[in-house]
Amino acid sequence: MTWLKSPCDHFPPQVHADLVKDGVCGVFIAEKLGMTPATASAHLSVLVEAGLVTSKRLGKWTYFKRNEASLQAFSQGIADL
């Protein structure tokens, strides 16, 4: 998740999308994690379903970014336990 907080520091520029506005292409995330795009997509889908990450489809690629509001609420909920 840290990589997605400051994507410009961790990923190369993307041709078809803005790293900050649109998110990071799932293929780049898979490469960074050392896994296949299909495996990364399965894990990212769980994070999207949990509301911690958002996804955006542009053409044939899916871009992911952190959902800061949900992450903050989640962190606060954990802190309140």
From TrEMBL:
<keyword id="KW-0805">Transcription regulation</keyword>
<dbReference type="GO" id="GO:0003700">
    <property type="term" value="F:DNA-binding transcription factor activity"/>
</dbReference>
<dbReference type="InterPro" id="IPR036388">
    <property type="entry name" value="WH-like_DNA-bd_sf"/>
</dbReference>
<dbReference type="Pfam" id="PF01022">
    <property type="entry name" value="HTH_5"/>
</dbReference>
<protein>
    <recommendedName>
        <fullName>HTH arsR-type domain-containing protein</fullName>
    </recommendedName>
</protein>
<keyword id="KW-0238">DNA-binding</keyword>
<dbReference type="GO" id="GO:0003677">
    <property type="term" value="F:DNA binding"/>
</dbReference>
<dbReference type="InterPro" id="IPR051081">
    <property type="entry name" value="HTH_MetalResp_TranReg"/>
</dbReference>
<dbReference type="InterPro" id="IPR011991">
    <property type="entry name" value="ArsR-like_HTH"/>
</dbReference>
<dbReference type="InterPro" id="IPR036390">
    <property type="entry name" value="WH_DNA-bd_sf"/>
</dbReference>
<keyword id="KW-0804">Transcription</keyword>
<dbReference type="InterPro" id="IPR001845">
    <property type="entry name" value="HTH_ArsR_DNA-bd_dom"/>
</dbReference>
<feature type="domain" description="HTH arsR-type">
    <location>
        <begin position="1"/>
        <end position="81"/>
    </location>
</feature>
